[in-house]
Amino acid sequence: MASHYRQMQVATVAGHGAAAFDSASRAVLTLHMHNKAGVKMTMPTGSVRVGDVIRLRFGLGPFSVHGSCDVTEVVDEPRRRGFTYHTRPDHPEEGEESFFVDWVADDSVVVRLHSNSRPRRWFMRLGGPVSRLAQALINRRYLRVVRKIVAAEAPGQ
Predict the structure, then answer these.
(1) CA angle 83, 38, 62 (to 5 degrees)
(2) Are 20 and 109 spatial neighbours (Cβ–Cβ below 8 Å)?
(3) Is there a domain that residue 127 lies in?
(4) Is 1 domain-assigned?
(5) Range of the domain at 36
């Protein structure tokens, strides 16, 4: 098994101003961004909280990948919101992933995703570069989805 964790960071400007910040934050903290991107995630409440277990499913039927994660951090500040989770033993990857929305000084709303992970299951190790590509594609899909959500909900975006 590979001992090294791989890091991946992606970011996008989702919009500008308070309405965009609220919309993007809601999309991240309610897992709406994930679900709209095709990663079905469930949690015990309507918004992530520290200690929650998030369950996920990605794929179709017998080709679905299942796993769960523990929410280890939630940030709800006037200009920064988001959360971090750590994968549980049933997850195909081992590591952490963070999803944050920052309302920066120039009024831009920036959505940032950061992951630090390595394959845990044989099929993820076997997939090698294909697994990394799939992770990169889903992260980019998350960003595309949150931009669409903000455009639909925040006036003037």
Answers:
(1) 115
(2) yes
(3) yes
(4) no
(5) 6-153
At 43, which helix (H) or strand (E)? none
- Residues counted in the chain: 157
Please indicate, yes or no, whether the overall pTM of this predicted structure exceeds 0.90. no
**Residue 138 burial (CB count, 10 A):** 15
Position 134 in a domain? yes
Token duo for residue 47: 């918004």
- List, in sequence order, the alpha helices (H) in 10-128: 17-29, 32-36, 122-127
* Cα 95–chain centre separation: 13
Residue 62 counted as domain residue: yes
Q: Which residues contact 13 (CB under 8 A, 6 or more apart)?
A: 108, 109, 110
Q: What is the CATH number of the domain that holds 49?
A: 3.30.530.20
Number of domains in the chain: 1
Over residues 53-72, the pLDDT tens digits come to 999 987 777 777 788 999 99
